[in-house]
Amino acid sequence: MGTLEATVRPQSNAAVIDLKGDIDGAGEDTLQKAYTEAVAQKPNAVLLNFRQVGYINSKGIALIVMLLAQARKSGTRLLTTGLSPHYIEIFNITRLSDFMKFYPDEQAALANSA
Asked: Of 19, 28, 33, 37, whose CB has the highest number of CB atoms within 10 Å?
């Protein structure tokens, strides 16, 4: 899919970060900038939308862990949607699923973001 792109959309109770492309070490600045923009809106939660992500490597997982650490430190809930079954399994194996909630679609995530 290529270089990571991230756009932030404010919603009623959450800031949604739409991710597109591959999440790897080259995406660190893009991901960090989007997360900083999202939390500046002071949302109840930040929703990472992985629907258009093609590939996540180990560096990409490390970047997600970095965001999770920042979210936990600030008391911001980090939610996810759009993960493929393969990446849901990876998140379960790496225990990321212990710290972030997965939702089948954006609507379900936003309904639980309050």
From this structure: 19
